[in-house]
């Protein structure tokens, strides 16, 4: 039971990681009205879960946990460098860096354990999937629970941002989260079967939308 409370804190939408400032390309779709209601957002979110969230963030979260179990710190940092290279859109790359750095800083301050000494100072970029996995590993949260929690927190942040941007009703947002549960559970099962060679498969349309975001004349989000 004592492991549940810190996990709930990490996944809380009020956790000040800065995720509320980023749409990761979804605002481009909202701006050109490809996403304009609950149904179109649900469809886009399902594609995001099945592609980028599964094959990049989710797989990275699981691989990090695997490497930690093997005490292979260098493999974690190698994975971190791969993730930085995979992120083609500048705003999205900067957004993930800021979220990762903020999460790292907060977790170092609120938990008594030293996450990994001062290694981060030598590395610069820090992907939030790695930070989340490192923290959960140190908190002795099971691997599958760690991956599912990270996926849920990512989707929850996007839903809350869609409530503001489309806009949607708060109840609609909560219904969306409920409807995403089967997709998240399926994603965790898929992630468990993937190898490192499959890391980075993504939806080209979303990557293009992430690149186009910085050209929008009016924006609510940083990415």
TrEMBL record:
It holds the Pfam family UreF. GO terms for molecular function: nickel cation binding. Keywords: Chaperone, Cytoplasm, Nickel insertion. One of its GO terms (cellular component) is cytoplasm. It is found in: Cytoplasm. Its main location: cytoplasm. HAMAP family: UreF (MF_01385). Required for maturation of urease via the functional incorporation of the urease nickel metallocenter. UreD, UreF and UreG form a complex that acts as a GTP-hydrolysis-dependent molecular chaperone, activating the urease apoprotein by helping to assemble the nickel containing metallocenter of UreC. The UreE protein probably delivers the nickel. Belongs to the UreF family. This is Urease accessory protein UreF. It comes from Parageobacillus thermoglucosidasius (Geobacillus thermoglucosidasius). The gene is ureF.
